[in-house]
Structures are given as structure tokens and as C-alpha cells.
Write a structure and sequence with these properties.
- Keywords: Repeat, TPR repeat, Transferase, Ubl conjugation pathway.
- InterPro entries: CHIP_RING-Ubox, TPR-like_helical_dom_sf, TPR_rpt, Ubox_domain, Znf_RING/FYVE/PHD.
- This is E3 ubiquitin-protein ligase CHIP.
- It holds the Pfam family TPR_8.
- It is a single chain.
- By secondary structure, the chain is mainly alpha-helical.
- The chain folds into four domains: 97 residues, no CATH class; 113 residues, Tetratricopeptide repeat domain (Serine Threonine Protein Phosphatase 5, Tetratricopeptide repeat), CATH 1.25.40; 66 residues; 73 residues, Zinc/RING finger domain, C3HC4 (zinc finger) (Herpes Virus-1).
- The chain is 56% helix and 6% strand.
- The protein has a three-stranded antiparallel β-sheet with strand order 6-5-7.
- The radius of gyration is 41 Å and the shape is elongated.
């Protein structure tokens, strides 16, 4: 249908504040509609367009719609043209319409949506890291929480948030986040480590030590010289010592009570013997009672030996640090060193044995598993040896 001259003149009165135009498309991904002129009037330079909702309201509502304020139109005239089919509503994808880009959510492919969410979550993680470095733990928690909302299956978001909770001594939340991270990644060193710390705070020593040992095994396998391995060992040693101290105090109390009960029983028996002889006790009875009391002391002192700190045997200690072994390795010369210590020596000082001065390379070090098991057995019986000076 050819528009009349008056119609063409009125079309010229349409002025758009947006200068750019988008290419047309036959796609119908988004249900957006844009009025396009069908007339052949040469003075019609471009067709009016708006966002998808505005186009619908232009066709139905004679009142000026607030969403079309970026277009100066005589809305009654547009409505008339639509009714007369001089103009038609043509579908244009929302992502190709500038007016829709910031006002409507376009339909995206699942992979594209997931990628966009992952990128946004990663940016939130970086924001959280920046807040954490500034000790703004509340803001960091908020950023990590938003990242978790977008991508809940990324374990590092959970461990990062747990670290913030740790800084705020919110141990119940640390435990919750770490357990979730472990569900997603069983080999997460940080998750096992912080879960162990949280359990220790709750006085669950056995479970806490178990998690710390798991973290130490995972960390030692990945990077034996890493800072986390040393930190985990320090916490594990402290936990083991606290566990021993707790159990030792309990055992000592039980032994003391039992010893007093036994001594009281011997004294009563001795007194009963005296009463039966009208207060006269022969020398043999007196000596026998004294021997029983001394034997009782020896038995209870022996029972308490493992809980009495002494010197750790030299063969269980590194020749360089003089500390008890954690991860002993043996050289071709038969000398055993702590792995991290000898590796540091070879890297910083030189490729030679610090005692024999013979050439030594890291590849020549062999784990001393027998000594490692001996150390473990010794520590199990002498928990006080975990105490770090």
C-alpha cells in the first residue's frame, strides 16, 4: 500500500534521538517487535524502532508510553498507520536492538549463559580476594557468596569464604563451607586443613587430627616444600599435643584416684592385722606392708612413664635441625635427613651431603619408610614429643 503525500509528510516529522541503526535479521530468537515502514516514499530515511514492550504499547495504547521517551513521535499517527497497515511490526532479535540490550533479558544458549555466569563469578572471586587483602572480610564474604550463587560447584569459592569466616572466628560456618568444598573436591588441601582447625575449636580432637593428617598427606604429595605443608604440620603438632595433654590429664587423674584407693586398702588391711593382735604388729607384717606400698608406687610410676616428658632419642631426630623426623629421606651414604631441610640445602648451598661432603642430587634421596613408621609409633606413645618450642 502506497502512503499518501500527507502521510509521507507526517512520517518526516518522526525524529529519533538515537543515530545508529541495527542491521535487520530474519531471526526470531527474541520476541521483540519494531515498527518498520512499508511505504515507498523516498523521504522516509529510516523506520522508527523502540524496545519490544514499547512497540506493543504503541500498537494498542493511544497514550504516550514512558518506555518510548527516547523517540519523539506523534503516537496517534503511528497507531493509525499500524491500523491501516501502512506500517507493520517486524520481529527483530532483542540482542540486535540497542533499546533492548539493557532493558530485556535475551534468550541465550545454555553454554553461553553458563560461560557468562562463570566469568561473572570469577570476577566476584577476584573482588573478594581484593577485599580480603584489605582485611574487609565482610565484603569478601559477600563477594564469594555471590560467586557461589552463580557457580555453586566451584570448591575454591567455598574455601575462600571459609577462610574469611576463619578470620572472624566463625568456626561453625568454617566447618559448613569446608564440608561442602570436600564434597566437590575430596583432594582439597585447604578444605581438609580448615575443617580440622574448626573441629579442634569444637574440642573434637580425634576428628580434627584426622582431617589435619589428611591435609598433610595431600599437601606433602603435591608440594613437600610448600608453605602450607609447614603450616599444616605446625597445626597438626599442636593438635596432637593438645590431644595428648587432654588425655594425659584424664589418665593422670584416674591413676591418682586408683593409687589412693589401693593405698587406703593396704592401710586398712594393716590396721586390721594390728587390731587382731591387740595393737601388736610383728616386724614381718610391718615389712610386708611397706613392701606392698613401695611396689604400688613402682607400678603406678611405670604406668605414668609415657606421659612424662623426656629427651627424644637421637636416632629419631634430623642431623641438621635436631627436630624429630616428619618425612625422613636417606642418602646413598646411609645418612637420614628431613626431606624439606636437605632439599633446601641442595638448592641454596650446593649439591653435596652436608656431613660427608660427597656429591648429592635430589634424585638420589630415598624415603626412609622404616624410620618414618618408628617415629609415628614413638609419637603415638609419647604425645608430649609433639610440643614445638
Amino acid at each position: 500500500m502506497r502512503p499518501t503525500d500527507s502521510v509521507g509528510a507526517q512520517i518526516d516529522e518522526i525524529e529519533r534521538t538515537e543515530e545508529e541503526t541495527e542491521p535487520e535479521s530474519d531471526e526470531s530468537i527474541a520476541e521483540s517487535s519494531t515498527p518498520l515502514a512499508l511505504g515507498r516514499e523516498p523521504r522516509m530515511r529510516r523506520a522508527p524502532d523502540s524496545d519490544r514492550q514499547s512497540a506493543i504499547h504503541l500498537a494498542k495504547n493511544p497514550a504516550f508510553h514512558s518506555r518510548t521517551k527516547h523517540i519523539e513521535v506523534k503516537y496517534h499517527f503511528i497507531r493509525q498507520l499500524l491500523k491501516k497497515k501502512v506500517l507493520q511490526l517486524k520481529k527483530v532479535p532483542g540482542e540486535r536492538n540497542p533499546a533492548d540490550m539493557l532493558t530485556k533479558a535475551s534468550k541465550m544458549a545454555p553454554m553461553e549463559a553458563a560461560s557468562a555466569a562463570a566469568m561473572q563469578a570469577e570476577q566476584l572471586r577476584q573482588d573478594g580476594n581484593a577485599y580480603f587483602k584489605k582485611d574487609r572480610f565482610g565484603a569478601a564474604i559477600d563477594a564469594y557468596t555471590e560467586a557461589i550463587t552463580l557457580c555453586p560447584n566451584v570448591p575454591i569459592y567455598w574455601t575462600n569464604r571459609a577462610l574469611c569466616h576463619r578470620k572472624r572466628n566463625e568456626w561453625a560456618r568454617v566447618e559448613e563451607d569446608c564440608r561442602r568444598a570436600i564434597q566437590l573436591d575430596h583432594h582439597s588441601v585447604k578444605a581438609h586443613y580448615m575443617l580440622g582447625l574448626a573441629l579442634l575449636q569444637e574440642k573434637e580432637f580425634a576428628e580434627g587430627v584426622k582431617e589435619l593428617e589428611k591435609a598433610l598427606d595431600l599437601g606433602s604429595g603435591a608440594n613437600p616444600k610448600g608453605y602450607m605443608v609447614e603450616e599444616i604440620w605446625q597445626e597438626l603438632a599442636r593438635a596432637k599435643y593438645l590431644e595428648w595433654e587432654h588425655e594425659s590429664t584424664k589418665r593422670s587423674s584416674e591413676l591418682q584416684n586408683l593409687k589412693l584407693w589401693c593405698e587406703e586398702a593396704l592401710k586398712e588391711k594393716y590396721a586390721l592385722a594390728g587390731s587382731q593382735t591387740e595393737g601388736f604388729v610383728d616386724e614381718n607384717t610391718r615389712k610386708s606392708n611397706q613392701n606392698r606400698l613401695e611396689a604400688l608406687d613402682r607400678v603406678f610410676n611405670k604406668a605414668a612413664e609415657n606421659d612424662s616428658p623426656t629427651e627424644v632419642p637421637d636416632y629419631l631426630c634430623c642431623k641438621i635441625t635436631l627436630d624429630i623426623f616428619r618425612d625422613p629421606v636417606i642418602t646413598p651414604c646411609g645418612i637420614t635427613y628431613e626431606r624439606a631441610v636437605i632439599l633446601e640445602h641442595l638448592q641454596k648451598v650446593g649439591k653435596f651431603d652436608p656431613i660427608t661432603r660427597e656429591t648429592l642430587y635430589p634424585s638420589q634421596l630415598v624415603p626412609n619408610l622404616a624410620l618414618k613408621e618408628t617415629v609415628r609409633a614413638y609419637l603415638d606413645e609419647h604425645g608430649w614429643a609433639y610440643k614445638m618450642d
